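Q: Two folds, back to back.
A: First:
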Amino acid sequence: MPAVIDVRGTLGALLIGCFFAVLLSGLVAFQACIYLRLYPSDKLMNKVMVIVVWVLDTIHTCLICTSIWIYLISNYGNVEGHLRGEIPITVSLSIGVTSFVTLITHLYFLRRLLQLSKNNWFIVGPTLFLAIGRVACGLTTTAELIRVKTFPAYTQHYSVVFTLGLSISSVVDVVITSGMCYYLQESRRGFGTMDEVIDSIIVYTINNGTLTCIATIVSTILWLFKGKNLVFMAMHFAIAKMYANSLFATLNMRKKFRGRAAPPKENANAMPVIFPDSFNRFSRNRQGRTDTFDFPEVTVTDTKTLHVTIEKTVDYDGGKDQESGPSSEPNYPSPLDIQMKHEVV
């Protein structure tokens, strides 16, 4: 009787993880295109960084899709190999690519932390050492998985390396997020608009760092307590995408924060209508007679309150001057002929 195995926690988990990772890879490509369009004159170092991460993410996507093909198509019906826990080389390589994407993201945020802390190497230095150590663990895991070729053999001798790499990644995320929030809080100066921008950056930093940190913690927990299936690897597929999206989103948000922090333009409250400098005299013909209205000469100044000044009119009837009241149908000039005065209150 052929062996019956449950593939929901192994092949099924890898398939779902691949779908989710491909979705995140599409977001990475979208973010990269947005960056290249919004910042054509950005620093060369940032452009190179974006291109490198984008290429690495594309390679990572190709590796995990190839892994699914090997598991589900090439090894279809290979029950013995599945029971042994054979690892395609593409899965091993994807772990190494993930470590490089993580390193580049950490280096970018460490540079920002160094700027915010005014070159405080006491914090940045040890964190940089941990970030490099995380890459070393990832590359060691890749090399050993390629050598031993099965998960049981790897977990028997080198499981601590994979655990250490994920744990270091979480620690670096916490240190960077906490440090940036602290120094951003210290940079508050009591100015309303700037403090609002700083508060927004703090919230964004927390959300950004928490997302990647939670992803690595979940992958670590699944590895430690569900190591016999491949659910942890399905989660690990998405880690590189989350770091890449975190990096690109931060780069693309700069213009929004700069716009909010920019001082308001002069005359922002000025009226959008341009009035004549003065209407000294205004004449019109009415039934063959000429009525003259005198308006004082005015100037337009930058103000917030609009006052309309209207001189009284005089209607000539049978040679007698009669002041027009509210109910005697006064001969007012048209609205466009009313002189408006913009005064400071």
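A: Second:
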Amino acid sequence: MGSICSKRAAEEDVNINKNERQIEVDKSSVQLVAPTIFIKEGILVDVLGRKDAGNVIVSLEEGDKKTKLVDEKKKGRHESVAMDSESIDDQPRMMIRMISMRRPSAAREAWPQWLTAAAGEAVEGWLPRRADSFEKLDKIGQGTYSTVFKARDLETGKIVAMKKVRFVNMDPESVRFMAREIVILRRLDHLNVMKLEGIVTSRMSGSLYLVFEYMEHDLAGLAANPSIKYTEAQIKCYMQQLLRGLEHCHKHGVLHRDIKGSNLLINNDGVLKIADFGLATSYQLDQSLPLTSRVVTLWYRAPELLLGATEYGPAIDMWSAGCILAELFTGKHIMPGRTEVSSFVEQMHKIFKLCGSPSEAYWTKTKFPHATSFKPQQPYIRRIAETFKNFPPSALTLVDKLLSMEPQDRGSATSALRSEFFRIEPLPSDPSSLPKYPPSKELDAKMRDEEARRYVTSNINHNILSENLILHNFH
């Protein structure tokens, strides 16, 4: 969650604020806070605080004491807002930001040319924020293609997360890959999915930051804390929110393709949100274009992806959700390789040992590219029930379903939400009733582990030095 930036780009101001004016409006009028405008020109209006907020290109039409803001797209239907230069006391008002634009294309021209040329549709109708309107406070996340910072919005005082994404030589294909995440985020709107709140860049900048709500925790960071033990009701609460978020994504034709603990963020109100759509893609049931199988962090990757499948759907996210559910009950990863980049062969072997190997019919009908390499000489027995025998029965049933070797047997997010697991006592906790934890993210856990390793190494070196000094003095 954050922003995107090239290696050589510096953070620069977005020079779009020269003509910015703050005005207050109620349903029928607008009070000018800045001097009254008497000239006709194009105006870009960004309505703040409304459910249907968005940028609108309007023009000014003069009147005696009032000036009308007319939506250029709706002029034929005479939709307008009256502007009154006199104060309107005791009336409910909402703030809108009005940025002077000489022509409708000015909004597009506020963005850097490298972005609009490669992926103009991703930012259509939006304006960039200025880099100097945020203050970076701390680094809170690090990925292969992005760095995430905790920051303060200096205009509102709100704490946010800024995701800075790195480009590969600023080539158009790399930009389009990044823009896909923006397009997908703008399509989604759900309590359990991170909402893109803004984009920071400028015409002269090679940097791009994505701005999101700040979340205090991620599931991986909480899981790494040995003092935190989840109750069954708490696990149901987190899983219910995860599945609701996935249900929304899948209904809107989006595959996340990287569900894992560090991408499931939790705030102090107990609300879980799915984050990091960098690997996400749009899909259709009748899609003919092949998809890449090199997605999803290895420990959460469905078997068909390891086998090289290029035609798949929501079932790959459901497999990852099954891994998360089992981890919440066991308190540890259920199929970890030696490292996160452990070999595909090792990962497939772990899946076979836990979930059993597919039937002969499976190998015959699927014809996956890597089937020959991975097909075991002897069949493996499924050991889900044996391995997780201490799980509540309803939880075991759901895990068993989500970790089915056949994608169609995993069901959907909707069917999982209707499972007995969520309908019997104890019922899922209300998010607001969950315990409050100190900020816990995967990066924090890694830093604590590294500090512990340095401490141990330092003590070992100190002891060795002491022993050498004693031996030296003895001789």
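Q: And?
A: The longest strand covers residues 134-142.
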